[in-house]
Design goal:
The structure is a homotrimer. The first copy, chain A, is mainly α. Helix content of chain A is about 70%, strand content about 0%.
Chain lengths: ~450, ~450, ~450
Amino acid sequence: MKKRLLFTYLALPLVVALLGILPTSAFAAGVSQELFTVNNTWMLVATFLVFIMHLGFATLESGLTRAKNTTNILFKNTAIVAIGLLTYALCGFNLMYPGDFNGWIGFAGIGLSLPAGDAGLIGYADGNYTYYTDFIFQAMFAATAATIVSGAVAERVKLSSFLVFSTIFVAIVYPIVGSWKWGGGWLDKMGFYDFAGSTLVHGVGGWGALACVLVLGPRIGKFVNGQVRPILGHSMPLATIGVFLLWLGWFGFNGGSVLSADPGAVSLVFVTTSLAAAAGVISSMVTSWMVQKKPDLSMILNGSLAGLVGITAGSDTVTVTSSIIIGLVAGVIVVFSVMFFDKIKIDDPVGALSVHLVCGIWGTLAVGIFSTNPEHKLWIQFVGVIAYGVTCFVAAFGIFLALKVTMGVRVTEQEEMEGLDMHEHGVAAYNGFQITNQ
Amino acid sequence: MKKRLLFTYLALPLVVALLGILPTSAFAAGVSQELFTVNNTWMLVATFLVFIMHLGFATLESGLTRAKNTTNILFKNTAIVAIGLLTYALCGFNLMYPGDFNGWIGFAGIGLSLPAGDAGLIGYADGNYTYYTDFIFQAMFAATAATIVSGAVAERVKLSSFLVFSTIFVAIVYPIVGSWKWGGGWLDKMGFYDFAGSTLVHGVGGWGALACVLVLGPRIGKFVNGQVRPILGHSMPLATIGVFLLWLGWFGFNGGSVLSADPGAVSLVFVTTSLAAAAGVISSMVTSWMVQKKPDLSMILNGSLAGLVGITAGSDTVTVTSSIIIGLVAGVIVVFSVMFFDKIKIDDPVGALSVHLVCGIWGTLAVGIFSTNPEHKLWIQFVGVIAYGVTCFVAAFGIFLALKVTMGVRVTEQEEMEGLDMHEHGVAAYNGFQITNQ
Amino acid sequence: MKKRLLFTYLALPLVVALLGILPTSAFAAGVSQELFTVNNTWMLVATFLVFIMHLGFATLESGLTRAKNTTNILFKNTAIVAIGLLTYALCGFNLMYPGDFNGWIGFAGIGLSLPAGDAGLIGYADGNYTYYTDFIFQAMFAATAATIVSGAVAERVKLSSFLVFSTIFVAIVYPIVGSWKWGGGWLDKMGFYDFAGSTLVHGVGGWGALACVLVLGPRIGKFVNGQVRPILGHSMPLATIGVFLLWLGWFGFNGGSVLSADPGAVSLVFVTTSLAAAAGVISSMVTSWMVQKKPDLSMILNGSLAGLVGITAGSDTVTVTSSIIIGLVAGVIVVFSVMFFDKIKIDDPVGALSVHLVCGIWGTLAVGIFSTNPEHKLWIQFVGVIAYGVTCFVAAFGIFLALKVTMGVRVTEQEEMEGLDMHEHGVAAYNGFQITNQ
């Protein structure tokens, strides 16, 4: 009798097994269909969160620049998403994840290469998500590197040249250097660690931005007779919307980099990410209030981003307390960095260099200082920073210089004075409003 | 000994079965509680994504129209969400999903009809989500059809008449024609395919918009002495925010239409949806740059939406390559379509006809061309397009004409010139800004 | 033979069990790793939804006030998020959830207290999510209470004093009174019910706002010679963006308060939340149209929020029909409440008192009227409302009065007239636009 009851209950998991698990033969060993599905779902949620960062960049950049260049910035940021997604499908994904390769450069071929049979759709390799999920999550990352450049060169770059530059940068430079770590290349083998891209995304974009800004020169009127003249952004609401959307997206940027819905890891990342951003707000507020005597909104907005960029490399591998320290330091760094670039007459309209490049370096080195994993070494982090810095700076400088010589990279003085919106696009961003030509 | 060990391990799934699976007796056969929960969770995520599309429509429409009509547009779009949700609860859901019916029209009764016992809450029919999830996901869709009309009739329609029209349209027309396919009606039985609503949502809204625009006539000043005068939108940042939010929402619109969190299907839909949108941006950019000699922001914004509408009908059933082709074609179509409607003097302030109607038709036919499922036939897709077109156009035309005769559908000339905000609502959208009355 | 086949199939769940379930020994009894993971994932989705409410508050508040104070409002709302998250980590979480305590006040110590071993990361207590998820979800709630105060005191409060006030309020007052119900304190033991915080969040913030507004007094020019002078908000698009983002966030606010991804409960909450908001829009539209003779956009925006606040306390425990009634009543209440506060000369620039305090009371009492759970009693709900009201009002009044005496809480008349942006921050929110100093 008892035995019979036992068999009755046994039937339950059996039925589940027969109906629910049989079709999962293609799932990786040890991952049930259920767990695979929730992991995959979380990765897709992270994907749409990273997508919305592009709106965050578009609104932040346009908010921090002048009304006469707003259409141009919105156009660039919309086009870059499209370029990023398509080139990543065409070649980026297979350059970044080439499989077995020499550790420096490899290419798995043009287009997407869905594994044979149902493996790509059902149980991709030994992962926690499908091939398509893998591609689209990574593709959303790709365009962000080019977008970072966009902010730094705003208000004076020629649209066509910028589109060509960012196509090459996102299609070739970003994925190749990305393969060094995330594709399993030489830096990965050396032990370099960059969880979600303080260097691989923000640093890469930041070094590219630095190169382009040096080739391009400052905006007319920014440095006059050795004096720095502030050029105010036209809409702080837009800038604030941008920062909140970026912060929101970062939950997917860092949270998705766990590459599964693992409860412990993802929730830790949510906490370290949030607290680093919050700490960046507070320390940039205090610093700017003390140094500039006024609490500066654009500084605390950049302070939150500084904290976010800072925690990106180690958000899964530092303690909560460390995350707060990393954010606090980033928030101080960003204020002084903005002042420093002004001082050395490098014109970066939105503070992209300070946020993405400088705090990206800080975040990458911070892994070497704060990681709870003893295998993460400061000197290896330093090697990584240098390797990415040299490569990306040289590549971007070369590409942009070649464009300068051939197509030209800068609008004419008249175009810059009257605004890129009317000259490049023929339509103002705001119609009906009385707007002074700052 | 070995036997004992075996039984020890056997105990594990047994415990899980006893504790975790026993309460799931109401779940559909073959779906574990875990899988049911993740499916249901994904459907609710998709629900809030579709919800945020309403903010996307509100900001896109107001950005592409004049500042003096902004309050009016925001009001309409907020009210429509409320009307859509409530009428769908009252009668729409039971008209659209009447159960067994004659294939043309059926009605399961007033209000929601939660299945008896816990079935509705725990394991709805043989589905992957609860009755309430089913309702709220579908309800979020319902209002979008009416919102599409809103954009086309903007800047001249009388608020009260528009509210009455959209109430009837969303409560009765949309769900009845919807039942023909998604409710299992005659077009479904014939083999017509529309995965997420290129025709059932965008086409329905688009045909309604065409009818209303014809009844209403163009805005004053749009066509003067046979010439087309462009009426510029007042805020490109608002329009861009709108497009990105719509794109974001589309991940739920298409991704949720899988009706489960099935990893292969949902991730494929994410990829086809993203790449079609990206392709629409690129092809509309190239087309508008060549035809209009300037890269037009509003064109690439509409280009991304064109790609999204185009891929909606077949995003689960075409290859990645096909999705890019569908998006590319949609991006070209939308540019020429906008020019065409101008030419034949049909005034559509936001390009709703070109995006939703024309690309909705394209997307529906594209299933017949590109689908990997040989059961999808071009001629049946064509039949579906015609059936929806005739019905929705005639119904909307009739309703709106009846309103014209009774309540009037258009504001007075003075109201239109001075703006609907002051006349209909007594409050401007922007206060403190110097705004010229375009 | 048959037996062998049986064993083959048996092997499947066994393998899953061995590989997938063994590491879950730390999971709560009866919750599989899969279910735990989906529950935890949903809670993190809810967390980022509540996060985005802060952008909703920031844009709603700045949209409904004047352009000259916009930077100030954006600054406050960005800083509050940071302050809320950090103080909640420092002491708030352990004040609100002190574990075993006297029911009135308890403190589990400074900082986060991750359970020993892997329990916090893998299977937190007997819950459905990790310790970190618990913390970050609750932390996102904490700051909202202070943000509600921000709206009511806008356009005249001194930044430094407000930051000090909100730090104390969110770090100490909110968590202590929160512990009375959600921490298992005396009101919880008495049977008081507040599912997601009609009183615990919105009421607490609302009572705080009332106290501060009384200490602060009305804005210059609001009440002149006994007449109420409307002070118009500067941007209805910003206000509308705010309301839609708040509504979006409410899916996480209420949906996450289920504290698991339970399909029946979460989907019911989605439906009641949506329909109450929709009903609030409709009833406030009708009421304002009848009373003010014009359909007022700011009224229907507040109407949707009224419905949302109203349904918050009982969204899991009332029927769908009841949720519509609760929303309808809330939408009527909010219109008359706004008029009432004007009449008694209490100046609340954004209607925060009417939305959060008055409708928070309504929602809390509505549980006593409409709950399907007979243990919910109206008189106990009333006791809860009074207890929170007296405590929060007295506490906020005391803190803010102390600040008035020491630091001062109000900017000078000149600063108020010229705008807080230039005086407090030295930077206008809009540059390049011609803006009149309303």
